[in-house]
Amino acid sequence: MAAKTTIKEALQALRRLLRDPEATDEVFTVIRGFSGNSFEKEFQRFVRSESGQQILANKQELLDVLKSDLSQYPANSLGGTYSRFLRLEGLSADGLVDASDPTQEVFDEPMRAKFGRRQRDQHDLWHTVTQYGRDELGELCLLAFTYAQTGNRGIGLIVFFGALKYRKMIGNKVFQAIREGYRNGKRCAWLPGTVWEELLALPVEEVRQKLELPEPTTYWACRGGERFASLQPL
Fold first, then answer.
1. What is the distance in angstroms between the CA of the first residue and the CA of the last residue of the chain?
2. Residue 24 to residues 4, 99, 163, 170, 208: CA-CA distances in angstroms?
3. Domain locations in the chain?
4. Alpha helix (H) residue ranges in 34-135
5. A biological process (GO) annotation for this entry (predicted)?
6. Rounded-to-10 torsion of CA 213, 214, 215, 221
7. 114-128: per-residue pLDDT in tens?
8. What's the whole-model pTM score?
9. Which of 108, 150, 205, 221 has the fewest CB atoms below 10 angstroms from its CB?
10. CA gyration radius for the chain?
């Protein structure tokens, strides 16, 4: 397994990030350095769950499913909505691999490695079901949601400093939207253990209800009531 990032290295990366918010490589270092044992706690929860055992027994990777022909799914389904979101945003399932941290921990143990890859590959599915867009505020809210789901303090730290930056643009409303994202992440089902493969054909609204995901109304209000069209079922 790759060497862990130290707190000192993470603090140095945080200082560089504060000087240059566009230095996205530093984000990964901050998240790794402050993550503590959050990954292991998540993994242990995952392997203890029925869905986790089912996923680990399945040799197929989530990425392979997401790279398959998604046109087989109805337009109002999770698979159809996810596919449209990728298309309209100029994304691809492979893009998640390309954009991931090249220095991330590599696990020799196959089950941990699979769980780590699955965490990476479901990011845009989280966008799709939470209805947080890829605008700066939407990404911040999804990070707050992710912090609630994973307990990774590095992600929480990025959210805090990102909110301070974005506050200059829209004022204190950013904190209300981020709190909503965090609360939604606490109240809903635990998404890392979701068997997405079984949900792709279902209507996306049914999936959101099944996962107990509230609508991000505060986020929409900050956007002037505008919703991301690519995240709504046709």
1. 44
2. 19, 10, 16, 22, 30
3. 7-231
4. 38-48, 50-57, 62-67, 78-89, 93-99, 110-121, 123-130
5. ubiquinone biosynthetic process
6. -130
7. 999 999 999 999 999
8. 0.89
9. 108
10. 17
